[in-house]
Amino acid sequence: MQRVCAAPSLTCKLWHDIIDESDQLWRRQCLLVRAVCQREVDSDRGNGLSWKVTLVRNYTRSCLKKDWLRGRYSYVRSAEELSGRKMAPLDAETWGEILQAELDR
To answer: Cys-Cys with 44: which of 24, 49, 51, 63 at CB 3.0–4.6 Å?
Structure first.
């Protein structure tokens, strides 16, 4: 017996709307990013940006910063090793943290 879904597009739209409007969902994810990019997240929130916009603005930056701080790029021999990786602008304070982590290794 074949089962037919009455309105798959309506279900998808409903889920999209629930996720899009769920401030609690975006906040929870954004706080994970804040663990790595506290200054950036606090600045965006202080400027009145929503949790969703703050997360979108800082997610790639937090992944990149985490990788740098973990030493993933400590022994890069050429620019080709970085090609294809997502990069994001980092502020001077973040570069200071990264350089200090490198010195501490």
So the answer is: 49
Mind giving me the DSSP string for 48-64? T--HHHHHHHHHHHHHH
From 48, 29, 43, 30, select the one nearest 94 (Cα to Cα). 43
Reference 53, options 32, 37, 30, 35; nearest CA is 30
Q: What is the largest CA-CA distance in the chain?
A: 66
CA distances from 26 to 35, 54, 62 (A): 15, 9, 15
> Residue 90 is encoded by which pair of tokens?
């980092």
What does pTM read for this prediction? 0.71
CB atoms within 10 A of CB 66: 14
Q: What is the DSSP letter of 105?
A: -
| Structure tokens, 91 | 């502020």
C-alpha 82/C-alpha 89 separation (Å) is 15
Per-residue pLDDT of 9-21, as tens digits, reads 666 888 878 777 7
